[in-house]
Amino acid sequence: MPDQTTEGQLRRELDRILVRLERHERTTLSEARSESARLVGDMFADAQVIASRNLDALSYERLSRRARELSNALERVRDGSYGICEECGGAIPAARRRALPGVTTCVRCQELRARPELAAWSVRPSRVRPKNGRRDDAKT
User: Fold this and answer.
1) pLDDT band at residue 39 using 50, 70 and 90 as cut-offs
2) At 101, is the secondary structure helix, strand, or coil?
3) Comparing 66 with 41, which gets the higher pLDDT?
4) What pLDDT, on the 0 to 100 scale, is given for residue 120?
5) What was the pLDDT predicted at 121?
6) What distances in angstroms separate CA 47 from CA 29, 39, 57, 118, one per listed residue?
7) Cα gap 98→109, rounded to integer Å
């Protein structure tokens, strides 16, 4: 059974991000209409406009990525695999899930992803996880 508290928290955060993305899209559209008025032919002033546009695009991309992570986390809550490391099948500590609600790996597996050279020193065997993330389906 899905954890209603976790699901509600994830849903609220996703909704906030979706509102910010929508607001960003409206702002971008209105700025695009006045884009020619913003470029004045001065190399430095135009460079600032372009740099600002690039920062806005990065912010939008970051928010979009966060929305995808939260959407995936909601799906994992619903199918019962939220809080289970997708790499090793171990539990992801509650503090880590609170800090990073979209997290899919435990700290150890995240470190192994970031530094594959550490894998040779790994003691815990990796388990093949089924797409639905349920432990009983992983046994063969």
Assistant:
1) low
2) coil
3) 66
4) 63
5) 61
6) 20, 9, 15, 43
7) 18
Q: What is the pLDDT of residue 137?
A: 47
Amino acid in position 93: P
Q: Alpha carbon of 87 to those of 45, 52, 78, 130: distances in Å?
A: 49, 39, 19, 11
Is the distance from CB of 92 to CB of 103 less than 8 angstroms?
A: yes
**pTM exceeding the 0.85 threshold for the entire prediction:** no
The CA-based dihedral angle spanning residues 8, 12, 15, 16, taken in that order and rounded to the nearest 10 degrees:
-170
Q: What's the pLDDT at 25?
A: 83
Q: Residue 91 pairs with which residues in a beta bridge?
A: 84
Instruction: Tell me how far apart the alpha carbons of residues 18 and 24 are, in angstroms, rounded to a whole number.
Output: 10
Q: How far is CA 92 from CA 22, 56, 103, 108, 132, in A?
A: 32, 33, 8, 10, 16
Record the tokens describing residue 105, joined without a space. Answer: 């790996």
Between CA 137 and CA 38 the distance in angstroms is: 58
